[in-house]
Amino acid sequence: MRPEDNLKSTEDAPVDPVACWKLIERVAASSHLNRAPRLRDFLFYVGTKSLKEGTTAVHEQEIGSVVFGRQRHYDTSQDNIVRVSATELRKRIDAYFISDGANEPLSFQIPRGGYKPVFRYQKLAPKPAAVEEVEPVSV
After folding, report:
1. Is the separation of the CB atoms in 111 and 118 below 8 Å?
2. pTM for this one?
3. Considering Cα of 46, then 47, then 48, then 54, what sign does the dihedral take?
4. At what angle do helices 37-47 and 81-98 cross, to 10 degrees?
5. Contact by Cβ (8 Å): 67, 41
6. What is d(CA 93, CA 30) in angstroms, rounded to the nearest whole number?
7. CA gap 43, 132 in Å, rounded
8. Residue 32, SS3 per DSSP
9. DSSP characters for 78-116?
10. How far is CA 74 from the centre of its chain?
């Protein structure tokens, strides 16, 4: 399976993995994540696994080991660092798309219960048409 096969938008049309990666980079560089290096690392890790390596699922223990330096087989029921960090990362991603990324044609989220980003095209509100000034007609 190719990585792009896992990328479906809400319209069920495939999204471009390069565009998805560029979006992850913009979110990571935003004011919502620029002072949170571990959350950026988390985002880059799950993005890389999903987009570049084509992994269908990213597991909590794997993230804990690679991103947070936990032992390879640490007990996730005793150490909730990944779940807590994922909740914070989801909030910051949402904040980005409410503010800086409100006009992004593509968006993503990391749904609860998993760690794989899901990309979709946003339905942007049409921009109001420019109103032309009409010169008054003299009668």
Report:
1. yes
2. 0.80
3. positive
4. 90
5. yes
6. 10
7. 45
8. coil
9. T--HHHHHHHHHHHHHHHHHHTTTTT-SEEEE--TT--S
10. 27
Of 7, 90, 10, 87, the closest CA to residue 52 belongs to 7
DSSP label at residue 48:
I
**Residue whose tokens read 């008054």:** 136
For 33, phi then psi, to 5°, come to -130, -5
Q: Which amino acid is at 77?
A: S
Cα–Cα distance between 97 and 107 in angstroms, integer? Answer: 7
> What distance in Å separates the CA atoms of residue 39 and residue 89, rounded to the nearest whole number?
6
CB-CB contact of 21 with 51 (8 Å):
yes
Tens digit of pLDDT at every position of the chain (139 positions): 344 444 444 455 678 999 999 999 999 999 999 999 999 999 999 999 999 888 889 999 999 999 999 999 999 999 999 999 999 999 999 999 999 999 999 999 999 999 999 999 987 655 555 555 656 666 5
CA 96 remoteness from chain centre? 9
